[in-house]
Input
Amino acid sequence: MAVTISAEIGEVLVGNRPGRSDALQITVYGAVGVAFQDLVAAWQVYNDARAQHEGRSLDFLD
Output
């Protein structure tokens, strides 16, 4: 079952709006800001996932 959360990423990050309720749900981030801001957000998510040993590693150069 699909669940739609209509919130800004900052609202979810600071806890003002709910995000995923379990690890099996998938989050889709719709980037609409300045490219540099999107890169910073992606880098934070990437580093958090690595620190928690979550996600998959992809080699885009292979």
Observations:
- Helices lie at 9-13, 35-51.
- The radius of gyration is 13 Å.
